[in-house]
């Protein structure tokens, strides 16, 4: 079901909450988690917030990040497990194996079209730009004040998931919500400075190495990020979060791909697209998912083999689109 009232009822009638989101946290997962947890604490609830991976440096300006853990304490128990911005439980990474499951109400709040609809209560709205936009609606429904700290957390989530209101998931409501958050105290200049004007030298070196790997075939552009590049630059892998956006800045490119070499033989692929090219369908072929214009997956294998398999599937999808266009 997709009704705020059921979640509000659970919040008001339970006391101990575990708030989680996906591995490799981004602005939306972090912003929505922090704002949701802040509301719970204002209501006097016992709250633990956790993610598999540490908060990336560029989000450390947000209030409450110092309280986010990367593990769940052994034998931890709670009344409610709230999972935000996460399409499937496996996206929790290592935390998926640490979940308290006995006598727990599981809440699923998300905006991914590929959401598995897990949990006892679901607030899944793919038409929303971000999970932060959904949490904003939930807070308004609860008639709880939007403090400047909460407003900035949610504004950051919307800005990052819409690419500063540039991506196709940006809607009229995204702008209205953004304006309301600014009115409530979010500082657009401060957020933009933290997100886009505080790059480290190591990140810029890593970006240079990744851009040098550029490979364009017709309307598909691929970038590759290897572990060697990370070592040479002195950067961390989480500093590459938005590198996948660069391919779409090229004229004529419809699909951008970033292949990131991770440990244990795993390759993380990020997809971006424009002109109504659905990359969520491609990511699902490889066990991933996301949105029509932004998706991802993880494949185990040799880097070059994985690249060939994914690019082959992208071209297959492009050809199908051309055939459908011709028939219509």
From TrEMBL:
Pfam families: DHH (PF01368), DHHA1 (PF02272). It comes from the Bacteria. Residues 233-310 form the DHHA1 domain. Residues 16-158 form the DDH domain. GO terms for molecular function: nucleic acid binding. SUPFAM superfamilies: DHH phosphoesterases. PANTHER family: BIFUNCTIONAL OLIGORIBONUCLEASE AND PAP PHOSPHATASE NRNA. This is Bifunctional oligoribonuclease/PAP phosphatase NrnA. It comes from candidate division TA06 bacterium. The lineage of its organism: Bacteria, Bacteria division TA06.
């Amino acid at each position: 079901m997709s009704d705020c009232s059921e979640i509000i009822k659970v919040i008001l009638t339970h006391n101990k909450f575990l708030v989680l989101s996906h591995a490799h946290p981004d602005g939306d997962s972090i912003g929505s988690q922090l704002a949701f947890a802040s509301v719970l604490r204002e209501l006097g609830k016992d709250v633990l917030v956790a993610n598999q991976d540490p908060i990336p440096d560029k989000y450390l300006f947000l209030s409450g990040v110092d309280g986010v853990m990367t593990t769940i304490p052994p034998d931890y128990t709670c009344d409610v497990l709230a999972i935000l911005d996460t399409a499937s439980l496996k996206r929790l990474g290592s935390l998926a194996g640490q979940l308290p499951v006995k006598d727990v109400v599981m809440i699923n709040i998300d905006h991914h079209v590929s959401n598995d609809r897990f949990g006892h209560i679901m607030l899944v709205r793919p038409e929303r730009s971000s999970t932060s936009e959904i949490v904003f609606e939930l807070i308004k429904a609860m008639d709880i004040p939007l403090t400047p700290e909460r407003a900035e957390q949610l504004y950051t989530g919307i800005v990052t998931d819409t690419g500063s209101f540039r991506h196709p998931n940006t809607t009229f409501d995204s702008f209205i919500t953004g304006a309301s958050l600014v009115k409530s105290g979010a500082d657009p200049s401060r957020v933009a400075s933290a997100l886009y004007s505080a790059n480290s030298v190591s990140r810029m070196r890593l970006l240079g190495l990744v851009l040098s790997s550029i490979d364009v075939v017709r309307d598909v552009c691929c970038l590759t990020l290897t572990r060697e590049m990370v070592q040479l630059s002195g950067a961390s892998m989480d500093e590459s979060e938005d590198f996948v956006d660069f391919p779409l800045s090229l004229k004529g490119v419809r699909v951008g791909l970033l292949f990131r070499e991770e440990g244990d033989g795993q390759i993380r692929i990020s997809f971006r697209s424009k002109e109504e090219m659905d990359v969520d369908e491609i990511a699902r072929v490889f066990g991933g998912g996301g949105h029509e214009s932004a998706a991802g997956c993880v494949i185990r294998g040799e880097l070059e083999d994985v690249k060939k398999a994914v690019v082959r599937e992208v071209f297959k999808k492009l050809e199908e689109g051309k055939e459908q266009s011709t028939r219509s």
